[in-house]
Amino acid sequence: MKMQSYLGQARSLGSTKNGVHHWWHQRLTAIALVPLSLWFVFSLIGLADADYAAYKDWLGDHGNVVFLCLFIFTMFYHAVLGLQVVIEDYVSCEAKKVFLLVFIKLIAALMGFASITAVLRVAFGG
Question: What does this protein do, in the record's words (predicted)?
Fold first, then answer.
């Protein structure tokens, strides 16, 4: 039985360090994904029966390239933030936690880089 108040127990756990920063980034990316996702879905609906040449013409518009790259970056960053919270909250083994955090960040960076590279290659002469 501990002789410490609940407030004292909570204080002894330490600070979250960058909890507010992380929370704020997750909310900002979620808000940014709303218009970007709507733009992406409506753009794909407009190109539903299109061939490769039509997609290439669509990506010829530099505004579409910028929005698509922003969508890809924001989507992967938001996914990493969400997965990081789940891993930090539910994985108890510290070694597994560190491995998974590094793994998801590496995979997201590689997939994001590959996606943006593919978009740029198609847009600028691929």
Answer: Membrane-anchoring subunit of succinate dehydrogenase (SDH).
Burial of 87 (C-beta count, 10 Å sphere; 0-12/13-18/19+)? middle
Q: What is the pLDDT of residues 80-105, one digit of tens each?
A: 999 999 999 999 999 999 999 999 99
Q: Assign a CATH topology to domain 22-123.
A: 3 helical TM bundles of succinate and fumarate reductases (1.20.1300)
Q: CA–CA separation, 80 vs 108, rounded Å? A: 7
Q: Where are the domains of the chain?
A: 22-123
Place of tokens 């013409």: 57
Q: How many Cβ atoms sit within 10 Å of the Cβ of residue 39?
A: 15
How far apart, in whole angstroms, are the C-alpha atoms of residue 86 and residue 34?
A: 22
- pTM beyond 0.85: no
